[in-house]
Amino acid sequence: MLSVNDPAVVAELSALHEKYEKALVNNDVEKLTQFFWNSPLALRFGVRENLYGAEEIETFRKTRSPLGDRKISDVRIVTFGDDCGVVTLEFSRSQSSDVPKGRQSQVWRKFPEGWKIVSAHVSLMYDSYADQAAALMGVNIPPPLREAVIQNVERVGQVAAPLFRTPIPDEVPSAPRFEP
């Protein structure tokens, strides 16, 4: 029977994850690269990037600036047997209140050479669609206007919703595709 959360395996993975976090905050590319499975099958989905294979992950790490201070919370480790585990957590970056909280997950697998991250995912959690859209466009919503902007985005959504539900007959030609 498969052992779930064997304390010794959880402790081993927890210690490795702490080392990973330290390397991440310090942008220690060499160590970060060593944590990932050296395979074209390794995967990392980031906030704005999809990286396929160890080479793409390493290249991304080499061009990324250090994260700086970040607080992690709600770390969860679940292990399956003595060679597979999942680490999930939430994080925030204390140097900037403009950066939303985020979440991270990693699938770890134990190989003959040791534990490696085979798949990772990072995403941000925005308070509203307006905040997410503003961040994607690089626009800062001044705090006194934030609630009004959110209300306006919600109104636009209410106006647009029926348009998306309106069936369009097949004989209506589609608009030409815009390519800048």
Return the domain count. Answer: 2
Strand order of the largest sheet: 2-1-6-5-4-3
Largest pleated sheet: 6 strands, mixed
User: Would you tell me which CATH topology of the largest domain applies?
Assistant: Nuclear Transport Factor 2, Chain: A
The CATH architecture of the largest domain: Roll
Q: Which parts are unreliable, with pLDDT below 50 for 5 consecutive residues or more?
A: none
CATH uppermost class of the largest domain: Alpha Beta
Describe this structure in words.
There is one protein chain. By secondary structure, the protein is α+β, with helices and mostly antiparallel strands. The protein has two domains: 7-125, Nuclear Transport Factor 2, Chain: A (Roll), CATH 3.10.450; 129-165. It has five helices and six strands. It has a six-stranded mixed sheet with strand order 2-1-6-5-4-3, with helices on one face. The longest helix is centred in the C-terminal third of the chain and has 20 residues, at 146-165. It is elongated and about 60 Å long. The model has no long low-confidence stretch (mean pLDDT 90).
Descriptive tags:
Nuclear Transport Factor 2, Chain: A; 180 residues; 6-stranded mixed β-sheet; alpha+beta; single chain; 6 strands; elongated; 2 domains
Concise account of the structure shown:
The chain has 180 residues and is of the alpha+beta class. It is 36% helix and 27% strand.
Please render the helix and strand layout as text:
Layout: H1 7-25, H2 29-35, E1 43-45, E2 50-52, H3 54-63, E3 71-80, E4 84-92, E5 101-111, E6 114-125, H4 129-137, H5 146-165
